[in-house]
User: Which sequence fits this backbone?
């Protein structure tokens, strides 16, 4: 049922996208046609044609990009994909304002028995008001593109862990995730994040996948920059779904080793600190129904990686593996994948974000009772320390559209406490 709902939402959004493009491009063409200066009109018509080509190509590129590699235009396509999404919301706001305006006018006519109809000056005013309101999503996207996606923020969180030894109390873990190194995430920004992370003085550093977005993105460049992370207990990582898409899982592991780090692929390593020990586990992306390829059981064949004589910390890019991790008795999971939705709005004390279409663990700290089968426990619950924990990092980069609104990029510093 949930999968059917997601499919309906996706198809509905595609239909809206088509109507939105028809609306904005036809209105733009009509406006250009009213320009009397021939040279200016011809120039704008050429630009209109180029913009239409970019939008169509941006929509088709994820499906046919492998046959028509156009990496040099990736930044242009990312802007085109941003337009495709934002234009839908601009279109909806425009139509909403028009609809509300006509509704109020109709109600006023019924009350006053006015039979004159909608006067031209009122119609013009309403149309301009609708255009002004419809521009708000575009302004928001421009802000998210130019400013908020570069607003790297440090999230400091203390996590009481069940079975966490007193000797390990106060252990600090720094987490980065979802770098998505590409034309829209330059190396200098990755270097800035690494510098901020090093300033936190963590004992252990982890990166939970999605180093790049597509095949051809600079994987070695990304990992070389990440190798500048400094932590006494080392730098560790796991693969994400985009390493699958780029066929770069093995290469990422090789580059980690080359640069003095370790990427765990269905592996575990006991780590000692101040006389205490914990078991660090790393797995490749755990597929579910939202990804290409077979959707096997989450965290399959994991028993031999889990230690019963010490607490376990799991690096798993997909937060949807958390229920299975809690069922297996894994005390702490660290994930990414969601980007926190990249865009988030608050409506009547509820966060609205597209990430909720793929997971219930969107961003931040969640807990589940060991043994599974229950709803997530709020972090503020007094009994939360008796449960398995997951922290979902909002990620550093972006995917789909290079925009963040209400979901700034995150560098996490976790202090683990004995529950």
Assistant:
């Amino acid at each position: 049922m949930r999968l059917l709902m997601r499919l309906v939402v996706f198809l509905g959004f595609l239909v809206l996208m088509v109507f939105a493009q028809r609306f904005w491009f036809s209105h733009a063409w009509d406006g250009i046609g009213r320009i009397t200066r021939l040279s200016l009109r011809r120039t704008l018509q050429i630009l209109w044609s180029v913009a239409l080509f970019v939008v169509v190509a941006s929509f088709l590129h994820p499906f046919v990009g492998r046959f028509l590699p156009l990496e040099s235009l990736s930044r242009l396509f990312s802007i085109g994909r941003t337009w495709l999404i934002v234009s839908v919301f601009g279109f909806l706001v425009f139509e909403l304002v028009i609809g509300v305006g006509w509704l109020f006018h109709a109600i006023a006519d019924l009350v006053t028995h006015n039979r004159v109809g909608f006067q031209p000056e009122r119609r013009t005013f309403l149309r301009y008001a609708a255009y002004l309101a419809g521009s708000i999503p575009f302004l928001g996207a421009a802000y998210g593109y130019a400013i908020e996606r570069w607003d790297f923020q440090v999230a400091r969180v203390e996590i009481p862990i069940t079975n966490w030894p007193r000797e390990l109390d106060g252990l600090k873990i720094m987490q980065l995730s979802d770098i998505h190194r590409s034309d829209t995430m330059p190396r200098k920004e990755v270097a800035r994040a690494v510098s901020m992370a090093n300033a936190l003085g963590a004992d252990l550093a982890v990166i939970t996948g999605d180093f790049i977005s597509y095949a051809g993105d600079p994987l070695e460049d990304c990992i070389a920059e990440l190798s500048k992370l400094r932590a006494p207990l080392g730098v560790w990582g796991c693969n994400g779904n985009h390493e699958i898409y780029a066929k770069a899982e093995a290469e990422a592991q090789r580059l980690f080793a080359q640069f003095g780090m370790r990427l765990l692929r269905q592996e575990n390593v006991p780590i000692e600190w101040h006389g205490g020990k914990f078991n660090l586990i790393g797995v490749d992306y755990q597929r579910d129904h939202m990804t290409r390829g077979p959707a096997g059981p989450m965290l399959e064949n994991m028993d031999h990686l889990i230690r019963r004589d010490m607490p376990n910390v799991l690096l798993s890019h997909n937060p949807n593996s958390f229920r299975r991790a809690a069922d297996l008795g894994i005390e702490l999971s660290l994930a990414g994948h969601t980007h926190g939705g990249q865009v988030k709005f608050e409506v009547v004390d509820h966060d609205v974000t597209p990430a909720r279409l793929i997971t219930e663990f969107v961003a931040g700290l969640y807990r589940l009772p060991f043994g599974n089968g229950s709803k997530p426990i709020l972090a503020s619950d007094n009994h939360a320390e008796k449960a398995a924990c997951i922290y979902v990092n909002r990620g550093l980069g972006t995917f789909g559209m290079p925009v963040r609104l209400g979901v700034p990029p995150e560098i996490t510093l976790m202090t683990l406490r004995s529950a």
Remarks:
- The longest helix spans residues 74-112.
- The chain is about 40% helix and 15% strand.
- The CA atoms of residues 194 and 228 lie 7 Å apart.
- The chain has a mean pLDDT of 88.
